[in-house]
UniProtKB/TrEMBL annotation:
A GO cellular component entry from the record: cytoplasm
Name of the featured protein: Sarcosine oxidase subunit beta
Lineage per the UniProt record: Bacteria, Pseudomonadati, Pseudomonadota, Alphaproteobacteria, Hyphomicrobiales
Cell compartment(s), UniProt: Cytoplasm
UniProt gene name: soxB_1
EC number: 1.5.3.24
Chief location category: cytoplasm
Obligatory cofactor(s): FAD; FMN
Length: 418
């Protein structure tokens, strides 16, 4: 694998950027693998990377129906944070956040992780109580989170309007996680793809999984794909919004609903916005990309669907809220919008687990907020597949919790949890 460095970048720049090599191969599928991962999003690619680097399992294929990173990984608004309420969530998301902090070095690929702070606004007494509860719970779990008054919010984020006389939903304060921020989503997929490929993992794009073949005892034997049958004794599914469809191929009905979730970006402007701001109550969140575009996200559509497009009224509602919170953006033009398909569980926490089908594992249910978990989820999902048992960090994130009622109910944190 070609090693990147500042020195090499300068040398290649002086030579007109000629001679950069391909970052991963385009292999034809082999007849069989030790492990097949369905879905080359960040989660699937990270899983393959950690199977190879942590567990020494390199006879792995990642099978992707489109192009790698073309699902939710390349469509999200890139917010990274770990201030969820329950102990199990704190363990999982903080594991991910710690991996983010060293990820560019680990992958020798700049994922542009930028811990610029994530500020979650409170607009009513319920928000205040709920966020203060989060602050206390997070601190008990060693996760940084602090309460700011409205004036302190304004100090942290100068474009924020806190003049209650001009707002439907006044800002009463906010919870700030300083270690939170953003990362470049494509780079995350590319960095993991490059690292996994260099260790022998085959990434097979434009290859849809159409069926899961099972043996006489119900165990998995491999997958039927648009490029033919590919054998494997272990299959890990990381297919986000399509998880229910893929798992139904093995006869499993998942506790998931798939909804469109959309985002939009503005024309680029000079750096004006120093952090990430989220408002769960009025359904809007915003940051500024390194290119200068304002990156704005909305809530999910009200109806289940597999379209990668959201309703126009949802975008309008979000922009109303953004203009009220940040009046200086009122005359900005939006450049483009798009949608992804998010897979929601009833308690808004993910499933990372073995399934009742021997050899079949699933990592799903990340809904509107799984980008932030990419390194951590890949790491513990690889462990679950390699050892055929969960890592301590994902032990609680089973499918059975919906049968047994042992929920990890993050719905309050996840109202628009990105
Ligand atoms: C608009 C939007 C904004 C978001 N904002 C944030 C945010 O700010 N922060 C955050 O933490 N999260 C956010 N999320 C959620 C986050 O993007 C996802 O939870 C996360 O990217 C899921 O990663 P993944 O690798 O599991 O899924 P994906 O990247 O969707 O990868 C799954 C892959 O599986 C492939 N696939 C599906 N079916 C098959 C098949 N039959 N055969 C082969 N391949 C198949 C798909 O093509 C896809 O590439 C957002 C999501 C959206 C849509």
């Amino acid at each position: 694998m070609e090693k990147f460095s500042g020195f090499k970048l300068i040398r290649r720049a002086l030579g007109g950027h000629q001679g950069w090599g391909r970052q991963w191969r385009t292999p034809e599928p082999k007849a069989s693998y030790d492990v097949i991962i369905v879905g080359a999003g960040g989660h699937g690619l990270a899983t393959a990377y950690y199977l190879a680097t942590v567990h020494g399992i390199t006879n792995v294929a990642v099978i992707e129906k489109g192009w790698l990173g073309g699902g939710n990984t390349g469509r999200n608004t890139t917010i990274v944070r770990s201030n969820y309420l329950f102990d199990e969530s704190a363990g999982l998301y903080n594991h991910a956040l710690k991996l983010w902090e060293g990820l560019s070095q680990e992958l020798n690929y700049n994922v542009m992780f930028s811990p610029r702070g994530v500020l979650m606004l409170a607009h009513n007494i319920h928000d205040v109580q709920s966020f203060k509860r989060h602050v206390h719970a997070n601190r008990l779990n060693g996760v940084d989170n602090e309460w700011l008054s409205a004036e302190e919010c304004r100090e942290f984020c100068p474009p924020l309007n806190i003049d209650a006389s001009t707002m439907r939903y006044p800002v009463l304060g906010g919870a700030l996680q300083r270690r939170g921020g953003t990362a470049r989503h494509d780079a995350v997929a590319w960095g993991y793809a490059r690292g996994a490929d260099a260790r022998g993992v085959d990434i097979i794009q434009n290859c849809a999984v159409t069926a899961i073949r099972r043996g006489p005892d119900g165990e998995v034997q491999g997958v039927e794909t648009s490029k033919g049958f590919i054998g494997a004794r272990k299959i890990g599914v990381s297919a986000a919004g399509n998880t229910s469809v893929v798992m139904a191929m093995a006869g499993l009905r998942m506790p998931l609903e798939s909804y469109p979730l959309q985002a939009l970006v503005s024309e680029p402007v000079k750096p004006v916005f120093p952090c990430v701001v989220m408002s769960n109550t009025i359904h809007a969140y915003i940051s500024q990309s390194d290119k200068g575009e304002l990156v704005i996200g909305a809530g999910t559509d009200a109806y289940t669907s597999y379209t990668q497009r959201g309703g126009i009224h949802i975008a309008n509602h979000t922009l109303d809220a953004i203009c009220e919170l940040f009046p200086m953006f009122r005359r900005m033009r939006m450049l483009r919008n798009w949608g992804g398909i998010v897979d929601l569980t009833p308690d808004r926490s993910p499933i990372i687990a073995k399934t009742p089908v021997k050899g079949l594992y699933v990592n799903c249910g990340w809904g509107t907020g799984g980008f932030k978990a990419t390194p951590g989820a890949g790491h513990v999902f690889a462990h679950t597949i390699a050892k055929d048992e969960p890592h301590a960090i994902n032990a609680a994130f089973t499918m059975e919790r919906f049968r047994d009622g042992v929920l990890i109910d993050e719905a309050a944190a996840a109202a628009v949890a990105h």
